[in-house]
């Protein structure tokens, strides 16, 4: 989501300090237990790492002292965030970006019906809504349940129901599916498409499968005219080809059968009764993995590593593979490929009849044609709590109800750092402010012509804040734009009660801003442009540089960029968005906060009346506009 | 009263602070409720005439022949909350649905601090508070956009879609493509500019 000019981004300081990697810590902590023989090298590594990282840190700090933030460097892409996305940790006293937090799931909900799904149900439902919410398999728009009969006009009798897409007008009738009831469609659909509902793994496949033939694996390979006249015949035709005994299974059912089969295989072939994998852990448990690894590897080193048991394995019992269809075996049909190619070539199918890659990605692997696409139950979404990665302090905790927009805890950066807003100072006072006119102007700033930009910082804290702004005199990069902050040091009032101001006297109402600005005249160095209860506006004088290779270049006197046109073109192509004028601004703020619970305050001199001076510094980037290529 | 105001400028300011452009097209004003401090810009079209008729007509062509058979019963077609902003040439239309073979309109509810972008077409059943509908977006019939949702420019929200809170939707058809930050909607920040927008309108 790129923003229109003017925008402000704030750089999270985490880009400079390497984030403590929890994975690394865990590895170094756990590895000695697992493989004692590997301890010395493993232990050496973290030390080295630490040395390296501290060295890097020192270097980084040294560089940081000298270097200014470059919004164009590839690294800064990862540290710049719009102010409203940043959080603030009260323990670390630092801005936290999405990279320096961890998330925990508070609740799961369906984005369509906004019902919460209990976490115990999430897995069995396959992370999808178990109610009536479906997405169109063709275009992903939500499907609506509607009746067929009523569309004809009258009758209190509710007809069969279908799912229909309001966007691409696809309905389940296109794949020949109707529903008897308008409720619980997912289980109805599952019954139709699978011979066994996957929720009940061990139930025999006696469930009603009225429409099971539809999703016969061969149904897609039969020619299309056959399908259109007689769908039921399809099943009869296909049955003798494959397996006479068992009816064909859907993908889910086959997966369940295979899973059950392999589980019994493991149970049978495990020779030691107290083997920790057998039944108490599932097939996917790490214990089972260990055992499989030791089964398949003869190397004693590896088995020692994974299994931990030193005794040499006697001949491991052989596991067999699935042999019958009831065990989940599926034999590729004889004329699979040729039938499919024939169907692809048939005029009835054509390009429109084939499922696209995107559509197939969410469907069963057998789905090749549009006819094979099934409605997709809506994927669940989550509400997540956020914690600081370094101190585990909780930063955001939403209420678990999906409908609620409230938070139990919400420590956003905006309540601590001043909110920056940028606005061009119109040259003529008559045309102040209508944002539309200003933005079109900002997309083509004439080079070498000074403009004034108003930067407003709005304080959301209950303490007044002292601010120091600093910019490099010339923006980094090849387009050298001169920037001057006319009053780099100023103070912002506290975010006191609105009533305080009103009672103090409404001599300076906030709303008189633009008119008074018009009267104010010329911006002066060392003077704050405007000031309100909890905000202060300062002026930045910006002289946009010339783009390399532009016609205005001659006047600027950039002799080293005198290169031939081809080079210029190549360079221009390689550096996209070079004409975007972004100003890095270093913000240093300090304020006197109440020293309450933090006795280990950040090493600042404490004041007598229980106040601590606290400071915070960060870079922000002001996106002013785009520089015109020529004058 | 009207003549001095007409001389004043483009916007009519009502007692509750609504700023309505003289060049907007508002139909069926008696069926529209504006919460106050609402801005309606030029060339915006608001179809208050498409309201649900209590005596259901027999045929389904109410859309083509909107009429008020019994104006004594005031039925609300469009509700707009405070500090909402309807940009230039946006269209607000109450949603409609074919129910039991009868085509009927349903009220369109728009919450507070809502922004409807330029040229957007909104036919939703409801837009929550702090909703942003981008430029040129279309919100389909009976869609429900919850609080703090963000519809990107040019998105087409399909009919009947529900967009949960804090979600960003975009594309054609619209899908959920992300979430806005926790600070979205804070006064003065992204999503909280409604008062500022209102304040600026109609200033010389």
From TrEMBL, chain A:
Self-association and partners: Subunit of dynactin, a multiprotein complex part of a tripartite complex with dynein and a adapter, such as BICDL1, BICD2 or HOOK3. The dynactin complex is built around ACTR1A/ACTB filament and consists of an actin-related filament composed of a shoulder domain, a pointed end and a barbed end. Its length is defined by its flexible shoulder domain. The soulder is composed of 2 DCTN1 subunits, 4 DCTN2 and 2 DCTN3. The 4 DCNT2 (via N-terminus) bind the ACTR1A filament and act as molecular rulers to determine the length. The pointed end is important for binding dynein-dynactin cargo adapters.
Keyword Cytoplasm on entry: yes
Name this protein carries in UniProt: Dynactin subunit 4
Cellular location(s): Cytoplasm, Cytoskeleton, Microtubule organizing center, Centrosome; Cytoplasm, Cytoskeleton, Stress fiber; Cytoplasm, Myofibril
Residue ranges, compositional bias (Basic and acidic residues): 40-58, 228-244
InterPro entries: DCTN4 (IPR008603)
Keywords recorded for this protein, A-Z: Acetylation, Coiled coil, Cytoplasm, Cytoskeleton, Isopeptide bond, Phosphoprotein, Ubl conjugation
Bias (Acidic residues) ranges: 59-68
Family: Belongs to the dynactin subunit 4 family.
Organism field: Penicillium egyptiacum
UniProtKB/TrEMBL annotation, chain B:
Stored SUPFAM superfamilies: Trimeric LpxA-like enzymes (SSF51161)
Any Gene Ontology CC annotation: dynactin complex
InterPro entries linked: DCTN5, Trimer_LpxA-like_sf
Organism ancestry: Eukaryota, Fungi, Dikarya, Ascomycota, Pezizomycotina
Cell location: Cytoplasm, Cytoskeleton
Family statement drawn from the similarity comment of this UniProt entry: Belongs to the dynactin subunits 5/6 family. Dynactin subunit 5 subfamily.
Name of the protein this chain belongs to: Dynactin subunit 5
Keyword check for Cell membrane: no
Annotated keywords: Cytoplasm, Cytoskeleton
CDD domains attached to this UniProt entry: LbH_Dynactin_5 (cd03359)
